[in-house]
Design goal:
This protein has about 250 residues and is mostly helical. It has eleven helices and no strands.
């Protein structure tokens, strides 16, 4: 049964999701820990996914013109490989664990440090390469599949390429909308055919229904905030949130 306390946590998570999708990519790193206060195991990913996808719909509608499709297309194959690795992980172990948290947290922290050094040195934006697309795409695909937390990885990749805040939000919007939509049927199949339980339950879907209105509040709040944040502040906030995500994963 969904309690009032669970709903309050869900409403906070929903507002954060909305703001992260339309103003500050990376803020969504707070969502999984919040949802984990209400659900556990695979239901954490299953309960978070509909909230993320609903906010994605608004983001792709509003920021479509800023999306960099030339940067998204090379990621497709590598994200697919990350998905496959994530599916294999769930089949093998059923749910997440400390080893996974440490690997992902360390990877994110290294990427953030590299980007901070680049900013301090005022290094010119890096050109997109197949190697970079392979590393970030596969890591992002795996991380979003197992924990809905690819934001820090993909955000540091886009900062590395020198994207301004409009292009970063627009490109991120389409990236997450695509991967989140793709995860739905895979989660359903995995929940039915592998050990570890279902990702989507009656309780989690009811939770999503109650939280949906707050997603709308969040996306409109984010849209208003987007135009008030400078490029420099935007980059610092994204990197700080990414660093916090890595620390949260490392300390448990």
């Amino acid at each position: 049964m969904i309690t009032l306390g669970a709903l309050v946590v869900g409403w906070i998570a929903a507002v954060v999701v909305g703001i992260s999708k339309t103003a500050i990519p990376g803020a969504a790193l707070l969502v999984t820990p919040l949802v984990a206060l209400v659900f556990d195991g695979r239901e954490i990913a299953g309960a978070a996914l509909p909230l993320l996808l609903l906010a994605d719909v608004f983001a792709v509608r509003w920021y479509n013109e800023s999306a960099r499709w030339d940067l998204l297309r090379p990621l497709v194959v590598w994200v697919g490989l990350g998905f496959a690795a994530g599916a294999a992980f769930f089949i093998a172990v059923g749910s997440g664990g400390r080893t996974l948290d440490i690997v992902i947290g360390t990877s994110i922290l290294v990427m953030v440090v590299v980007q901070v050094v680049r900013l301090i040195r005022r290094t010119r934006p890096a050109a997109p390469t197949t190697a970079a697309a392979a590393v970030y795409g596969s890591a992002g695909g795996f991380t979003t599949f197992v924990s809905n937390n690819a934001g820090p990885i993909m955000n540091t990749y886009m900062i590395r390429l020198g994207l301004d805040k409009a292009a970063l939000v627009g490109t991120s919007a389409w990236f997450y909308f695509s991967v989140n939509l793709a995860k739905f049927p895979i989660y359903v199949v995995l929940g039915a055919l592998s050990a570890g339980g279902s990702f989507f339950t009656r309780e989690s879907l009811l939770f999503n229904l109650w939280c949906a209105p707050m997603i709308v509040v969040g996306v409109y709040a984010g849209r208003s905030l987007f135009h008030r944040v400078s490029q420099e502040v935007f980059l610092v906030v994204v990197l700080v949130l990414s660093a916090l995500a890595s620390v949260k994963l490392l300390v448990g």
